Amino acid sequence: MTRSAISALLIAGPTASGKSALAIRVAQETGGVVVNADSMQVYGDLRTLSARPSPDEERAAEHRLFGHVDGAVNYSVGRWVEDARDLLADLAQGGQLPIFTGGTGLYFKALLQGLSEIPAVPEEVRARVRAEAGGLAPQEIHARLRAIDPETAARLRPTDPQRNLRALEVFAATGQPLASFQNRRAAPLLDPATTAAFFLLPERAALKARIDARFEAMMEQGALGEVERLAARGLDPALPVMRAHGVPGLIDHLRGDATLAEAIARGQRDTRAYSKRQVTFVRHQLPEFAMVAPEAGWEAMAAML
Hints:
Elements: E1 8-12, H1 19-30, E2 33-36, H2 55-60, E3 63-64, H3 77-94, E4 98-102, H4 105-113, H5 123-133, H6 138-148, H7 150-153, H8 161-174, E5 195-200, H9 204-220, H10 223-231, H11 247-254, H12 260-285, E6 290-292, H13 297-302
Parallel strand pairs: 1-4, 1-5, 2-3, 2-4, 5-6
C-alpha cells in the first residue's frame, strides 16, 4: 500500500509500548494529525495517570480528541465514534492524514468493523439503574445482570462494573439482552482496504518492566495529587474515570485503607493484566492489524509514507 492509497493510519499496542512517540514522529513526517483512541486519555482529569501526551508533545504535532471530556461524563465508545466521525470529515477537507493511536480495542474495532447498533438508553432509565446499583460491589452488579440477562453476563467479567451497568441499562430500556444487539453493526468509519493498521508488541518481560517503571514515573510527576483532586469531586465510583488503572488503589491510600506502596503495586498489577487483555483482544478480534516490534515500527510505516 502506498502513501497515496492510505486514508488513515492506526497505531495500537499495549500500555507503555511506545505508541505516542511513534505517532508523533509519523505526524511530523506527513503533516498528519494524532487522534486519540484511548478511552482514558479522553478525560481532562487524568493527564498524568492516563499517560496522555504532555503539552510539549502536543505542540510537536497536532493532537485531537485528547482531554476533551469531563470526568463526570459517562463517555462511551458510541460517543467517541460520533466525535471521530466529525473529526474525519474535518481532516478530509484539509487533506490531512488521521493517525489514530491508543490502546482501546473497541475504538479500533468500531473504526474498522462498525459499532453494534444498540438503542439509546433514556437518561431517566440510566439514572434509575445506576441509583439502584449504587454502593454495590462489582460482583454484585454482575450477579444482578446474570439474574435477568445470563447471555450477556456470560460474556462480561464480574470485575467490570461499567460494562455490566451498561448491559443492565439496555435491558431496562428495551427488555432485551445487550447481546442480542451486538451482531447488528453500523457501517465502519474507515475502509480497511485503505487503512494501514499496526499493533506494537514488545517482548513480554520488557513490557512488564516498562509498565512498572512508567507507573513509578507517574507518581513522581504528580499522579497522587491528580487522583486527590479527582476524589474531591465526589463522582460516582462506577464512572469510567473512577475505574482508570491506578485510581481505585490511590483513592484507597488517600482514605487510609492502603499504604502508598500497596497502591502503587496494585496500579502496576492492574495495568499489566490490562496489557495482556489488550494483546488478546487484537489477536482474536482485529485481524486487520499487523503485529510489529516497537523498535521496527517506524521502518514498517516509513515504506508506505
